[in-house]
Write a sequence for this structure.
């Protein structure tokens, strides 16, 4: 039997919402020139602000309590793009309602954080009153019975690489946060841009094995991510623990490939007698009907409130 307390979270990713029409050649004198050429040739037609608006409108109709956006707001992470993304975030909702993490495109090269992704800090920081340990990630936000833990995998990489990395310090802090949240009886959602599953050394999370080792200790109830630009769901085996992992497509995609149709997920978390009940629904924009169709409706339970194991 389920009791009433719960939370509904919507999840979208990879909006790539910015334009590069204003980029200067000075800004392109590095790895960015490759990303710019890719945008000119293909990516500017692969993402649409109109599609993104439709995704948001459909999602709003589900009346989620909270929205998580798992990175890649920009194409090259320039200061102008980050300001454009900041304005867009302001138009979507208050920092209290939205939690975000950056993606690899948002840290394309090593830039001044304050002038770039630092502008989004209000949407990716600890709840007010929580001790700030001097670094941004992981952050912890508590909404109802849910702890939203945001990680950054966004690090500058060499040309032709789209990989991510968490780093030892972030993993150590994640371990402690997961443990503390479990002691408080919270449902723990870990959010990051890159999949915790292997995606190869050029596109994957370089310290995925260390993340697995960390999760094997305190566990987590759910992991959500972007980056793949397609729907993904699987169980992650972290030591003795099995943790559900969901990835969403780009919310602004206008690809010909139906596997990369734009969409989003909704997670309904409720406390159950035996632990937690998680209902996961996926919605994809159908090219023919031009309506968002539900393509997945999956209930995961029981997840133990203390172990995170299935
Ligand atoms: Fe992306
Ligand atoms: Fe990405």
């Amino acid at each position: 039997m389920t009791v009433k307390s719960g939370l509904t979270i919507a999840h979208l990713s990879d909006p790539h919402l910015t334009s590069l029409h204003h980029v200067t050649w000075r800004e392109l004198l590095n790895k960015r020139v490759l990303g710019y050429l890719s945008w000119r040739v293909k990516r500017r037609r692969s993402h649409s602000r109109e599609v993104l608006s439709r995704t948001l409108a459909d999602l709003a109709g589900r009346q989620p309590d909270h929205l998580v956006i798992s990175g890649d707001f920009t194409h090259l992470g320039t200061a102008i793009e980050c300001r454009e993304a900041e304005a867009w975030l302001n138009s979507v909702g208050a920092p209290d309602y939205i939690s975000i993490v950056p993606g690899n495109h948002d840290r394309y090269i090593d830039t001044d954080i304050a002038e770039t992704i630092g502008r989004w800090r209000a949407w990716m920081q600890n709840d007010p009153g929580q001790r700030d340990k001097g670094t941004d990630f992981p952050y912890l936000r508590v909404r109802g019975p849910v702890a939203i833990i945001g990680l950054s995998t966004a690090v500058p990489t060499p040309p032709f690489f789209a990989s991510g990395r968490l780093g030892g310090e972030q993993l150590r802090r994640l371990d402690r946060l997961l443990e503390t949240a479990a002691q408080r009886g919270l449902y723990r959602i870990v959010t990051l841009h890159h999949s915790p599953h292997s995606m190869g050394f050029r596109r994957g999370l370089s310290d995925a094995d260390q993340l697995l080792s960390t999760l094997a200790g305190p566990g987590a109830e759910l992991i959500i991510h972007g980056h793949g630009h397609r729907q993904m769901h699987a169980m992650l085996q972290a030591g003795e623990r099995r943790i559900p992992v969901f990835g969403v497509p780009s919310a602004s995609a206008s690809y010909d490939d139906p596997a990369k149709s734009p969409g989003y997920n909704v997670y309904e978390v409720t406390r159950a007698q035996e632990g937690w009940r998680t209902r996961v629904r996926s919605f994809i924009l159908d090219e023919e009907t031009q309506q968002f169709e539900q393509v997945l409706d999956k209930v995961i339970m029981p997840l133990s409130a203390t172990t995170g194991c299935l």
About this structure: Confidence is low (pLDDT under 50) at residues 304-310. DSSP finds five helices and twelve strands in the chain.
